[in-house]
Inverse folding.
């Protein structure tokens, strides 16, 4: 499991384990919190073409799907 705290998400870099459509390296570009500090929205951007996706930030903790940093 990748160690991850919601407040450290913004601008973090990630590598997708199973590459799809040549999209491998991503960075978190936007994180929206509610009044209680819970993550409402997490947007990642593919570095190769700047395409953006909304994801569940907890999926980034799964080492079967994501690796921290660009590998």
């Amino acid at each position: 499991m990748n160690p991850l705290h919601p407040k450290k998400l913004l601008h973090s870099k990630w590598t997708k384990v199973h590459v799809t459509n040549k999209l491998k390296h991503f960075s978190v570009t936007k994180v929206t919190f509610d009044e209680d500090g819970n993550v409402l929205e997490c947007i990642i951007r593919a570095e190769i073409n700047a395409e953006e996706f909304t994801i569940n930030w907890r999926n980034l903790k799964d080492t079967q799907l994501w690796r921290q940093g660009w590998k």
Notes: The beta strands are 13-20, 23-33, 39-46, 52-55, 66-68. The CA atoms of residues 4 and 58 lie 9 Å apart.
